[in-house]
Backbone:
């Protein structure tokens, strides 16, 4: 079954089309990358899928359910989770507290029970803490559980945000430039983490400018140009597509692809 289907979707801002007549599908259990130059509509597309924007036309189907216009918290309950280009971290909280925030959909919200600190609430908090530590271990931050986020290095914060997104227990995880600003070692850690996430059965949708990372991890690549689909296919097919080379990659992009192949 197709996990996500976008059908002839468009959105415009002030008469300018950010996304225009875009259609594609995402199959479960794979790593799908969305690439394109700045202004191609990649983050706008993420915002449409995750309910921050509402399309002017078209449909977004998640597991055959029309999710267009649904608020983010409802989409999270359906199994959609994401990270952002700019870190959305609670810097005064510890790493484990940040991840625990992502578990709120799986917790009872009985205010009276929390005020009275009933045994059920204590057990729930213990389960939440244990799950958060498990996720921190998964992303390589087990030793930083009790460290304030504001004292952690940038690359670790990128992985922390991914851990919090995973706390939702998503079916599909959307990562918006997870390696942006990372050094080569941190980028390699993100590369490995994305592949490990996919192995757990979570479908990953990635927006990223690091072509080496994209070509290394992607099962399928969608190329956008000015809000329209320029090409799609495997990494090898996209690398060899003349339209992609001419309209998006150019000489610099070809050099990056050559390095990615190496």
Residues:
């Amino acid at each position: 079954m197709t996990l996500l289907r976008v059908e002839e979707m468009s959105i415009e801002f002030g008469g300018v089309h950010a996304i225009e007549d875009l259609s594609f599908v995402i199959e479960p259990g794979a790593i799908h990358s969305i690439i394109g130059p700045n202004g191609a509509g990649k983050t706008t597309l993420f915002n449409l899928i995750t309910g921050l924007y509402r399309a002017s036309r078209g449909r977004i189907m998640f597991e055959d359910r029309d999710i267009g216009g649904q608020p983010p918290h409802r989409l999270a309950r359906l199994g959609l989770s994401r990270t952002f280009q700019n870190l959305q971290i609670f810097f005064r909280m510890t790493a484990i507290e940040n991840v625990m925030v992502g578990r709120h959909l799986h917790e009872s919200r009985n205010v009276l029970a929390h005020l009275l600190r009933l045994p059920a609430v204590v057990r729930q908090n213990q389960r939440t803490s244990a799950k958060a530590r498990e996720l921190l271990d998964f992303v390589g931050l087990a030793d930083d559980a009790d460290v304030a986020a504001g004292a952690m290095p940038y690359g670790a914060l990128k992985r922390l945000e991914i851990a919090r997104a995973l706390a939702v227990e998503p079916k599909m995880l959307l990562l918006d430039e997870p390696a942006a600003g990372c050094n080569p070692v941190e980028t390699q850690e993100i590369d490995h983490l994305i592949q490990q996430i996919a192995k757990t059965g979570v479908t990953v949708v990635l927006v990223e400018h690091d072509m080496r990372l994209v070509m290394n991890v992607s099962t399928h690549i969608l190329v956008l140009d000015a809000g329209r689909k320029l090409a799609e296919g495997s990494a090898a097919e996209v690398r060899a597509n003349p339209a992609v080379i001419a309209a998006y990659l150019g000489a610099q992009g070809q050099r990056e692809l050559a390095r990615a192949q190496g």
